[in-house]
Write a structure and sequence with these properties.
Elements (H helix, E strand, L loop, with lengths): L1 E10 L2 E10 L10 E6 L9 E3 L1 H9 L3 E2 L1 H9 L5 H31 L4
Length: about 120
Amino acid sequence: MVRIRMSRLGRKHKPFFRINAIDLRTKRDGKVLENLGWYDPSAVADKQLELKSDRIKFWLSKGAQPSDTCADIFAKHNLIDAAEHAKVRDVRKQRRMAARAGKAEAEAAKADAPKA
C-alpha cells in the first residue's frame, strides 16, 4: 500500500518537508516512490507550499492514502473532498476521546480497588 506523507529535512528549529508517495512499510525518511511537492512552514505564506496536483490526483486514484497532515493540506487546496475529510477526522477524534475516557476510568477503578 502506498501512503502520501511528509519527510523532514532542514536543520534544527528550521523544518522543511517534502511531500512524497512512499511505501507504507518504509521508514519516514526512507526510499521514496515519487516526490509530490514540498512544504516550508517558516516561509512567507505565498511561498510556503508547492504541490504537483496532477501527480497527487494520480496517486490518490491508484489508492494511495494520505497521512492526516497531508490530507488536511489536500483538503485546503481542493485536491480531496473537504467535507468527507472533515467527517473522517471527526470520527478519529471521537475514537481518541473515547479511548482516553476508557483509560481514565480504568485508572480510577484501579486506584479505588482495595490493596491486598
